[in-house]
Amino acid sequence: MRETFAKKNTDLIQVNRLLDPKEKSFFSFDMDSTLIRQEVIDELARLAGVYEEVASVTKEAMEGNLDFHEALKKRCIYLKGLSSSIFTELYPKLELNTGVERLLKILKEIILEPQFFPEVLRIF
């Protein structure tokens, strides 16, 4: 069965086998490129007009020249001073990955609200 799903680039989660519906549960996700198609930091950089600068730091990290945390800090420097109102412009541009809406609906029926942790927030 796994091979069939892998060929179709599909995942299968049998939630009722993972969670006891009688017990309160906590289910957390990374958001960027997992629940949504985009990386929020890249999209913020686009809106702020500093995408090329942020992409350059990302490339440097991907090539092994910067560790993850250092790269994240450098990318966030380019976003310093952005107004929180930019999220109003960003939100409609974000797209859920295939199957996420259904997964979240199922999780809400079984457990408390799912929690999301954008990686960018971990450094603050």
UniProtKB/TrEMBL annotation:
Pathway: Amino-acid biosynthesis; L-serine biosynthesis; L-serine from 3-phospho-D-glycerate: step 3/3. Keywords: Amino-acid biosynthesis, Hydrolase, Magnesium, Metal-binding, Serine biosynthesis. Signal peptide: none annotated. The keyword Cell wall biogenesis/degradation does not apply. GO terms for cellular component: cytoplasm. It catalyses: O-phospho-D-serine + H2O = D-serine + phosphate; O-phospho-L-serine + H2O = L-serine + phosphate. GO terms for molecular function: L-phosphoserine phosphatase activity; magnesium ion binding. Its EC number is 3.1.3.3. It comes from the Bacteria. Its cofactor is Mg(2+). GO terms for biological process: L-serine biosynthetic process. InterPro entries: HAD-like_SerB, HAD-like_sf, HAD_sf. It is an enzyme of class 3 (hydrolase). PANTHER family: PHOSPHOSERINE PHOSPHATASE. This is phosphoserine phosphatase. It comes from Leptospira interrogans serovar Copenhageni str. LT2050.
